[in-house]
Amino acid sequence: MGAVKRVAVIGAGPAGAITIDALAREKAFDVIRVFERREAAGGCWVGDQTPPPHLTNLSSLAARTADQPLPIPETLPSRTPKAAAGSVSTPPPPRFTESGIYPYLETNVDAIPMSFSEESLPEQRTDNSIALHGPETPFRHWTVVRDFVQGLVNRNGYQDFVSYRTTVERAEKVGKEWKLTLRKEGDEWDDWWVEYFDAVVVATGHYWVPYVPHIEGLEEFEKARPGSVIHSKHFRGRDHFRNKRVVVVGASVSGADISVDLVKTAKLPIYSVVNGRKANLYFGDGAFNHPQISRRATITHIDPSTRTVHFQDGTSVPGVDSVVLATGFTWTLPFLPSVELRNNRVAGLYQHVIYHADPTLLFIGAVAAGLTFKIFEWQAVLAARVLAGRAKLPPKEEQAAWEAERVKEKGDDIRFSLVHPHFEEYFETVRELAGEPEGGIGRALPEYDPSWFQVFMDGLELRKKMWVRLNAEAREAAVNGVGKEGEKGPIVTTIEAPQEVR
């Protein structure tokens, strides 16, 4: 690999934010450019100013092919009107930029594992979280995380590196350079242009494109009543489901939180499709033991004319108003056609970071489950050291062999990206590869601290105990004839925990 002087970072969420600092502190690069398609830093912690879109083309979401690239103008630079990407009859393809934020959302992971080694989440707690978990609640409101990430970007002049509302529409290697085709979104026009770099760091995250399972009749059900089928990332609070009959699909943490939260406002019971599905690796399925949640088997089909949802065990629910799909996400890289996405994982990575066919392409955050913010930091420092020429990597053959062995051990799917339970081994391997800062230049990575994972697990236990307590209170209230207003509320739906892991 030749000298790297110009680095592009794609994404200014938590992974991108810590990558900016890691690169800048190496003091080895002439150009650091960050491209963020949202209007501000923060990634999936940035709230939306407009209501979420209705789900369309459910079949392509089920096939994991919905996130298609936009056509690129033949001549660049170029300015195109908004209507150029489509028309009234053929709207432009969705870009899935909206987040899963709503007013009372909070984290479900302790603030300590969501902090970096030098930067910590502030000690700010909401009254709701204190009421649910006590005065030392380790959870934080989404705005605290958003402001934390934005603070990482808006320091040391780093904000000057970032181009907002800018999408990387294509990244391709041309000779020894990376050619990035960029689109900056305006109110009426989009500006397109090209920039060249020596290396690219992908920090886009993978909680953007909803995965929608194929269910017979689901698309017709949605078309007959637009907005009746939503993904959990489009959940904007329980009030939108007042007096509605709701079926929630998904046995992971979002499905649990949404189901319990809807008890407050929706028609009872809430029908949760969880039977026959694996519970979340960390959170279990205790939330679904709520007396007003009816556990159901897999959906076989939906009759849109009668709004009846039929289940695998032969039961059915008529007159359904809404179906909420808490069914995870699809990894997509529409701007990077040279990289294979296989079974919802990025193929070709060494230690989940370096694209071993070309070490000038690196990924931050291509992992699933637990301690993600800290993993972002370790990966970012490794990436920065590699590009600065200060980290010694094994030969490409050994890197490819590491991937092949992991596929054999874990599987050629999302399980490949699961660091749990080998956190110490992974953190220390990455730290050793990155090496120590030279002459005080660069971020220093501390040794792995087992207390990080213990604190992480303690936070999960708090959540589990909350569900047990609320379920017991609900059963007692039912015996005593107390209605919905006797319920505790609200229960927060959260987005930090990985939803792909079942």
Structural notes for this entry:
- The protein is an alpha/beta fold and 502 residues long.
- The protein folds into two domains: 6-105 and 142-209 and 330-448, FAD/NAD(P)-binding domain, CATH 3.50.50.60; 212-327 and 455-486, FAD/NAD(P)-binding domain.
- It is built from ten helices and 23 strands.
- β1, α1 and β2 form a beta-alpha-beta unit.
- α1 packs parallel to α4, α1 (14-26) packs parallel to α7 and α7 (372-388) runs parallel beside α9 (423-434).
- The protein is globular and about 70 Å long.
- Mean pLDDT is 92; it is low at 85-89 and 485-502.
- Pfam families: FMO-like, NAD_binding_9.
- Keywords: FAD, Flavoprotein, NADP, Oxidoreductase.
- This is FAD-dependent urate hydroxylase HpyO/Asp monooxygenase CreE-like FAD/NAD(P)-binding domain-containing protein.
- It comes from Colletotrichum costaricense.
Low-confidence stretches: 85-89, 485-502
User: Could you name the CATH homologous superfamily of the largest domain?
Assistant: FAD/NAD(P)-binding domain
Shape: globular
**Tally of helical segments:** 10
CATH topology of the largest domain: FAD/NAD(P)-binding domain
The Rg value, from CA coordinates, equals: 23 Å
**Count of domain modules:** 2
The percent range for strand residues is: 15-25%
C-alpha end-to-end distance: 39 Å
Specify the helix fraction band.
25-40%
Structural class: alpha/beta
Q: Please identify, by name, the CATH architecture of the largest domain.
A: 3-Layer(bba) Sandwich
CATH class of the largest domain: Alpha Beta
Tell me about the largest β-sheet: 5 strands, parallel
Strand order of the largest sheet: 4-2-1-8-23
Strand element count: 23
